[in-house]
Amino acid sequence: MNIRTVGVIGAGTIGRGVAQSLAQSAFDVLLIDVSEEQLASATTQIGNDLRLQGMFRAERLKDDPATILGRITTGTDLSALSAADFVVENVTENWDIKRDVYEKIDKICRPEVVFGVNTSAVPITRVGSVTERPERVLGLHFMNPVPLMDTVEVVQGHFTSEQTLDTALGLLRDLGKEGIVVQDAPGFVTNRVLMLTINEAIFCVQDQVATADQVDRMFKGCFGHKMGPLETGDLIGLDTILNSLTVMYESFRDSKYRPAPLLQRMVDARLLGRKTGRGFYTY
């Protein structure tokens, strides 16, 4: 399939990163969100990120920021996706919201269009089941910050075809990224391991075993990690951490995935990490 125009649903942190990566690689992008305010904020942030990349990572930019931004068209109407050759969805980790989106875009998009589900934990097979094209639905788990991360977790649902995998892996290569294919399971590989680590680190803080700074400094100093688990949680967003743990807890029915009460309290208090300026640290 010749992919020229890519639809990106959701203009949050990951969605705008996906849109930026696609535009940097000369794809035309249809960036869709329910909020005009969110779209305006995303466009401003992408412009700022492109200017920073131009200053410090110029080798990643083949065109000037204005040209790249000119490839992104924003809107709040999903019907614009009738022009898309490929769709990457990045809405919140809420099954009811995701299901509504897929039921709608399945009627809007051409039958041959592939749907890439950007999810931390929702099973890809479940997403495919609400469409008439389950063989053309797969997981594309991008990491934050998307333009700077070279690897994407690609998830093969029960009915995902080899042709769909080839199409998605080819698109990722065009973005300068490697896709690693794993099988469908709640949390897949990255979050099945990472979320437990972050959650247990939160339990350590909750139980006053150590402070957040002490936990993170040990992971960086003892294991050579670039970031500690609580810094990583702040970067991802503590609401996303909670949603992912909840999906895995309900899917596996295993108590090891139960969210720490401190995590729930911080989310209730809107201490979500970098996106709100406060989490385990202040930004």
From TrEMBL:
Indicate the segments forming the 3-hydroxyacyl-CoA dehydrogenase C-terminal domain, all copies: 187-283
Q: Which residues form the signal peptide?
A: none
Supply the Pfam families for this chain: 3HCDH (PF00725), 3HCDH_N (PF02737)
Identify this protein by name. Answer: 3-hydroxybutyryl-CoA dehydrogenase
Task: State the similarity comment.
Answer: Belongs to the 3-hydroxyacyl-CoA dehydrogenase family.
Q: Where is this site: Important for catalytic activity?
A: H141
**Single Gene Ontology BP annotation:** fatty acid metabolic process
Query: Which top EC class applies here?
Result: oxidoreductase
Mind telling me which InterPro entries this protein's record contains? 3-OHacyl-CoA_DH, 3-OHacyl-CoA_DH_NAD-bd, 3HC_DH_C, 6-PGluconate_DH-like_C_sf, 6PGD_dom2, NAD(P)-bd_dom_sf
Binding positions (NAD(+)): G10, A11, G12, T13, I14, G15, D33, E93, K98, S120, N144, K275
Q: Which organism is it from?
A: Streptomyces luteogriseus
Protein keywords: NAD, Oxidoreductase
